[in-house]
Amino acid sequence: MLENRPPRGLLLSALGSAVLGVSMFLPWYSVSITATGAAAAQQQFASVAQHYGNANMQTLADQIGAGFSAVAGHPLVTLTAHQALKDLSVIVLLLAGVALLASLLRLADMIEIGGDQIALVGFAAALCVLYRIVSPPGAHTDLVSLSLSWGSWLALVAAAAIVGGALWTPSGDRNPAPDPFLDFLP
């Protein structure tokens, strides 16, 4: 009865693949204004108000400009991997799809693919995710800050689940042939 149960490793790989695909549309990066950026925005806002506005406009600009420092360091917007990474997110989505399809087809005994091959696909996805964790996209400036959000860490855990689940699955058949050398043992 236990022999008919699907291997847990393949289930873990399939779940990791699905989570990796979904994580491409979750927040990966938070964008915030730095203190230097808030000061520059305040200065530019006051300059425009002084050049084009009257006294009331300048007073209003000073009041609004004073609030810029309050938003410094706080996340203003989040970016998904699909928004920020463009081509790399498509590659990771394809890798997740291949790993999901291979895991499900192996679970259904429709193909004979080794767990090490699924693990290789998961490892490639993990490398892509790690690359963007270590090297965020975009030019680095003193005005805005780009920090990692929870979606990137979820993607890394999902890619690790693909690799771990695939390696947990024995290669080849679920019911391996008996070892002929063990027949000689008493």
Oligomerization: single chain
SSE ordering: HEHHHEHHHEH
Mean pLDDT figure: 80
List segments where confidence is low: pLDDT < 50 over at least 5 consecutive residues: 172-177
Structural class: mainly alpha
Describe the overall structure.
There is one protein chain. With 186 residues, this protein is mainly α. It has 2 domains: 8-34 and 76-173, no CATH class; 35-72. 62% of the residues lie in helices and 10% in strands. It is built from 8 helices and 3 strands, in the order αβαααβαααβα. It has a 3-stranded antiparallel β-sheet with strand order 2-1-3. Helix 1 runs antiparallel to helix 8 and helix 7 (115-134) packs antiparallel against helix 8. Residues 172-177 have low confidence and may be disordered.
Salient structural properties:
rod-shaped; mainly alpha; 186 residues
Give a summary of the structure in a few sentences.
The protein has 186 residues and is mainly α.
Task: Describe the SSE topology.
Elements: H1 8-23, E1 27-33, H2 35-52, H3 55-66, H4 68-71, E2 75-80, H5 81-85, H6 87-107, H7 115-134, E3 144-148, H8 150-168
Antiparallel strand pairs: 1-2, 1-3
Helix pairs in contact: 1-6, 1-8, 2-3, 6-7, 7-8
